[in-house]
Fold:
Amino acid sequence: MEETRSARKRRAILDAARAVFLRNGYQGTSMDEVAALAEVSKQTVYKHFADKERLFTEIITNDIREGGQRSDVVLDQLPDSADLEHDLREIARRLVTAVTQPHLIRMRRVVIGEADRFPDLARTWYSSGPERGYERLAHRFAQLTDQGRLNTPDPLPAAQQFVWLALSVPLNKAMFDPEPYPVDELHRFADEGVRTFLAAYRG
Structure:
C-alpha cells in the first residue's frame, strides 16, 4: 500500500528528530532544527506532534516496538516449541542483538541523562520496553510451567532473570564503551544465559 503524503511527512519528522536528539540531547534539540532537517515547516511538525516531549516519546516507543517485534514471532510460538532450549536461545540472541544496537544505546543514554528533569520520558522508556518484555515473557513461562516444561511458580522474576542473564554484561559495557561487541560474542552471552536459566527452571 502506497504511503500517504501525510505519512511520509510524519516519517521524515521522526527520522530527523531522532538524528537531532542523538546529536544534541533532549535539551539541546529545537523543533526549528527538526523541521529544517525534515524539510517541512515548523507548523507541520506541531501538526503531527503537539510538543517536543510527545515527539521524543513517539521516537522512544517506535524504536522499542521495532526491537520487540524481532522477538515476538518466536515468543508467540514458544508454548508450541518442539525444541524449547533452541527457541529460548533464539529469543535471547534476538533480544541482546536488538537492545545493544548503537542507536538504541545512544537513545538510552539520552533518556537517562534527562530522567531527573523529565521523569515521564524515562517511565515511558521503561514501560514500553523492559516492563512490556518482562510481562510478555512471564506469560509464556507460565504457559510452559502449566505444560510441565518449565518450573517457574513465580514467572515474572523468572522472566526478569532470563533477560538479565543474557543482557546484563553486554548492555552494561555498551553504555560506557562505544566499541560494540561482535555478534558472535553477543550470541555467546545469550546462549550462556539460557543454559544457566534452564539449570534453575527446567521442568
